[in-house]
Amino acid sequence: MHKFKIYLSESFDPKFNLSVEEWLMDCSEPDEVILFLWQNENTIVIGRNQNPYKECDVKKLKEDDVFLIRRLSGGGAVYHDLGNLNFTFIASDENYDVENNLKVIINAIDKFGIKSCFNGRNDLLVNERKFSGNAFISDKGKSCHHGTLLVDVDLDKLSGYLTVSPLKLKSKGIDSVISRVVNLKELNPQMTIENLKTALMTSFNEFYNTEAETIILNHNTVDAAEYVKKYDSWEWNYSESPDFSLVFEDKFDWGIFEINLELSDGKIIDCKIFTDSIETKDFQKLEKSLVNKQLKNDVILDVIRKNFKNEKIRQDILSFISDKINMC
After folding, report:
1. Segment 36-68, tens digit of pLDDT
2. What mean pLDDT comes out for the span 12-34?
3. N or C: which end of the chain has fewer CB within 10 A?
């Protein structure tokens, strides 16, 4: 006998919502079939095997106080704001059926007179325009299918943040695929986040011929602190990136400076510096001193301060690298 449950998050904090999702996967009962609806304030969510430095303008995210967070599932990077509604289906492997999940979504959208379809990859479309990206994960006998529903998202911000920083970067990670997107509100101006939530809950109950228990979630009703620590950590969001390399270069009045960094798990595993400056020893010291350091602005700048005697070169390199690392 299946137990059907609908969870609604009152929080717009991506750390909390991604934590709740993992908590539901870990703690739900084998006979439960779950629909979880949630929203995040301005956030870039990257796939499990993606490189944030390659997927988005990290410097711009920091300047605009936009969250960057890594999810458990694969797939590409997506932008969330309060014009977007996220859905998650969770069930044990034996009760999990992606086609059923998709029917629940498509039937809900159909209630607004919008005919949609699944493209057989990861997207839901209306007339070849994407309004939903989907991703999947299975672990410990549970499966999760989650995705976005663009209702009234700021598409300028979506395209602006999902723009790679102007760095010479080579990565072994999974790249996002840019698609033509559309807000559902453009197709039916009567649609809102709230009435779409209602339509999804109705569709879920209709499809399974049930009256699912509805549970409100917030920071007071769920103790997800241990999960939040993970999703709030630099180690999870950045150091989990695939191996990649960075090249920074510029010309100064004392000479050309080029630095090549090889990174793994967010740490510099190799550093090569090329320069025609007559001050060679400090650059050689810097090469060695950067190895095994994390790609964090304060860490890198501290190493530079300690390795240059020439004040002019030190200040030029500090200013140059500070700007570049802030892009990362």
Report:
1. 999 999 999 999 888 887 788 888 898 899 999
2. 96
3. N
pTM for the whole thing?
Answer: 0.80
31 dihedral zone (left: phi>0; alpha: psi -120 to 50; beta) = alpha
On whether the CB atoms of residues 202 and 272 are closer than 8 A, the answer is no
Q: Average pLDDT for residues 292-319, to the nearest whole number?
A: 90
Distance of CA 223 to the CA centre of its chain: 23
Locate the DSSP E strands across the chain: 3-9, 32-38, 43-46, 67-70, 78-80, 84-92, 117-118, 123-126, 129-139, 142-150, 168-171, 213-217, 244-252, 255-264, 267-275
Q: Which residue has the higher pLDDT, 246 or 193?
A: 193
157, two tokens: 């911000």
**Residue 243 and residue 240: Cα distance in Å, rounded?**
9
Q: Report the candidate in 283, 325, 276 with the shortest Cα–Cα distance to residue 307.
A: 283
